[in-house]
Amino acid sequence: MNKTELIDSLSEETTFSKKDVTRVLESLTRIIERSLRKGEKVSLTGFGTFTTSVRPARKGINPATKERIDIPEIQIPRFKPGKNLREVVRAM
């Protein structure tokens, strides 16, 4: 399911207009991004938790030149599914 299909489904299920659903979905995304940027975690009970973690610096190899390179430490987003979501997927 892509974003457009999600908006269509939410609009049908809630009877809100597609425009309103789009605004809410985009706001939710911005709020999660902003919270993660601040180092906060975002928990949606039953669905899951969004957090960040640090991927440590490491050595790598440029595949084109075979030259060794240093890859810097970076922050990456993580998602841990909640109990309800895990159970729904397992029951498929």
- CATH architecture field: Irregular
Number of domains: 1
Look at the structure and give the mean pLDDT. 95
Straight-line distance between termini? 17 Å
> Which segments are poorly predicted (pLDDT under 50) over 5 or more consecutive residues?
none
Amount of beta strand: 25-35%
The helix-and-strand class reads alpha+beta
Spatially, the strands of the biggest sheet line up as 1-2-5
- Main pleated-sheet profile: 3 strands, antiparallel
CATH-level-4 superfamily name: IHF-like DNA-binding proteins
What is the level 1 CATH name? Few Secondary Structures
Annotated CATH topology: HU Protein, Chain A
- What is the number of strand segments? 5
Helix content: 40-55%
Q: Total helix count? A: 3
Could you explain how this protein is built, in words?
The longest helix is centred in the first third of the chain and has 20 residues, at 18-37. The protein is α+β, with helices and mostly antiparallel strands and 92 residues long. Helix content is 43%, strand content 29%. It has a three-stranded antiparallel β-sheet with strand order 1-2-5. Helix 1 packs across helix 2. It is elongated and about 55 Å long.
